[in-house]
Amino acid sequence: MKPSSLLTPDAQLDLRGTPCPINFVRTKLRLEKMPLGGLLEVWLDPGEPIEQVPDSLTMAGYQVEQITDCSSYFSLLVRRPLAGQ
Questions:
Q1: Residues 6 or more apart in contact with residue 9 via CB below 8 angstroms
Q2: How many whole angstroms separate alpha carbon 1 and alpha carbon 22?
Q3: CB of 52 within 8 A of CB of 24?
Q4: How far is CA 31 from CA 1, 18, 47, 71, in A?
Q5: Membrane-spanning residues where (predicted)?
Q6: Of 1, 12, 73, 76, whose Cβ has the fewest other Cβ atoms within 10 Å?
Q7: How big is the chain by its Cα radius of gyration, in Å?
């Protein structure tokens, strides 16, 4: 099993400057277009976006695999679950 630092996203979404809840909605729409098990990297602003979006995604059934503080923004790795999960 490879370390989490080597997770390679299948797609990337830059939502810096996007307010809540629009950033959650855009993330969810992008994940719905991805294949089952696909990994999406999302860039979010500090504050409300990084506090709200990961919890909202988890409650919606997505798997947040990693959150990285990149100084001026956060990188969130979220996976679309496989069918039946």
A1: 39, 40, 41, 77
A2: 35
A3: yes
A4: 24, 17, 23, 25
A5: none
A6: 1
A7: 12
